[in-house]
């Protein structure tokens, strides 16, 4: 047996004994630098205090070790990953590790014809390119990302599409009060361009968004209007089923609202500062492993296992502990929601998830639709 295989087996055994899942897809921040300074940036990239570019040699070592540990995918992020001077060489290296999945998250403003051609030349069916687009028009997108960012993103998308990469593209949309009503138009635009999917996530009041008064979470009534549109507009419903994935609409489907444990450590997140979190949404420093770029990755996961096992126990106890959950008829469905979002918005694992009111409204709407009076 090769040493790397033994290490993989040993680590998987250690994690399973702790009640944790083995790592599947690593989100790896290769730089803290960014060409934009978005109002909702969770990691506050693109400022003088942001983490610098991670040396390429250290990134290659981490990627190789993750593959040796049985990892099935890498997702390169930042900051803006294309700010890293060796981003393309790093993608090529990751491609040759032959993991089934390789993704890159970008604002697309730095993608020109040559960059799109280089991505096409990776020639990899497992490649995915996620482009952030926070509106169907410049007014909405640029409010968050700065003047000209929408035009830059659309130009980058056009270069990628011209290179034949439309089937590899997804749009990521952050749901906010000023842009939620544009979701149908964004789906239509994406479909016209041949883009494979549109995925969204709601704004979390952390990072820069914690203090910014110009952006805010969408209101429950906006989501209920979107649900009504889904139910009454067959064209929108068909388009959503083809390329959309929005949490509030997914909650409307009964078989997609079954409670599950947190998926620690299935989708870990390694920052450009070298902190390893068990989940892309759970950025709790007391439960992070630091200095990961200067130690073997297997050691970092081993050090994290007891921390993340305790997090899993916290997650399982939230519905019994949070007062708002006690009388809630849907607590067995949502399991008290996302613990990482609760930490991000409140700094408290035993706070209600920031989407609690929305979840209740969607579940009530579903029940009302299923049992009309």
TrEMBL record:
InterPro entries named among the record's database cross-references: Aldolase_TIM (IPR013785), PqqE-like (IPR017200), Radical_SAM_PqqE_MftC-like (IPR050377), rSAM (IPR007197), rSAM_sf (IPR058240)
Every Radical SAM core domain range:
20-237
User: In its keyword annotation, does this UniProt entry include Metal-binding?
Assistant: yes
> What GO molecular-function term can you cite, just one?
4 iron, 4 sulfur cluster binding
Identify the cofactor(s). [4Fe-4S] cluster
Please, which domain of life does this record's source organism belong to?
Bacteria
Q: Which UniProt keywords apply?
A: 4Fe-4S, Iron, Iron-sulfur, Metal-binding, S-adenosyl-L-methionine
Q: Does the keyword S-adenosyl-L-methionine apply?
A: yes
Task: Identify this protein by name.
Answer: Radical SAM protein
């Amino acid at each position: 047996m090769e040493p790397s295989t033994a290490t993989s087996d040993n680590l998987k055994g250690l994690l399973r004994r702790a009640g944790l899942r083995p790592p599947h897809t690593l989100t790896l921040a290769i730089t803290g630098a960014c060409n934009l300074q978005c109002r909702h940036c969770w990691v506050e990239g693109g400022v003088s205090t942001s983490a610098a570019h991670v040396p390429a040699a250290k990134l290659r070592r981490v990627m190789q070790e993750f593959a040796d540990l049985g990892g099935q995918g890498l997702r390169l992020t930042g900051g803006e990953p294309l700010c890293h001077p060796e981003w393309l060489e790093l993608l090529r290296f990751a491609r040759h590790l032959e993991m089934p999945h390789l993704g890159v998250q970008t604002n697309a403003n730095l993608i020109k014809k040559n960059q799109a051609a280089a991505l096409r030349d990776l020639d990899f069916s497992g490649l995915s390119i996620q482009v952030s687009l926070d509106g169907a028009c410049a007014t909405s997108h640029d409010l968050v990302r700065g003047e000209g960012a929408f035009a830059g993103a659309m130009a980058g998308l056009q270069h990628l599409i011209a290179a034949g990469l439309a089937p590899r593209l997804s749009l990521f949309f952050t749901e906010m009060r000023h842009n939620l009503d544009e979701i149908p138009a964004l789906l239509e635009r994406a479909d016209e361009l041949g883009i494979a999917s549109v995925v969204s996530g709601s704004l979390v009041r952390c990072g820069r968004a914690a203090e910014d008064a110009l952006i805010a979470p969408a209101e429950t009534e906006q989501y209920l209007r979107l649900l009504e549109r889904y139910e009454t507009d067959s064209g929108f419903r068909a388009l959503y089923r083809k390329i959309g994935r929005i949490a509030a609409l997914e909650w409307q489907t009964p078989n997609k609202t079954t409670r599950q444990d947190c998926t620690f450590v299935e989708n870990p997140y390694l920052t450009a500062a070298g902190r390893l979190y068990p989940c892309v949404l759970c950025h709790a420093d007391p439960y992070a492993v630091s200095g990961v770029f200067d130690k073997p990755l297997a050691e970092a996961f081993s050090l994290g296992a007891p921390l993340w096992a305790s997090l899993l126990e916290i997650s399982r106890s939230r519905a019994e502990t949070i007062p708002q959950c006690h009388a809630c008829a849907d607590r067995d469905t949502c399991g008290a929601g996302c613990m990482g979002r609760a930490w991000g918005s409140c700094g408290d694992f035993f706070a209600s998830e920031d989407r609690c009111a929305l979840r209740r409204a969607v579940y009530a709407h579903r029940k009302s639709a299923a049992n009309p009076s």
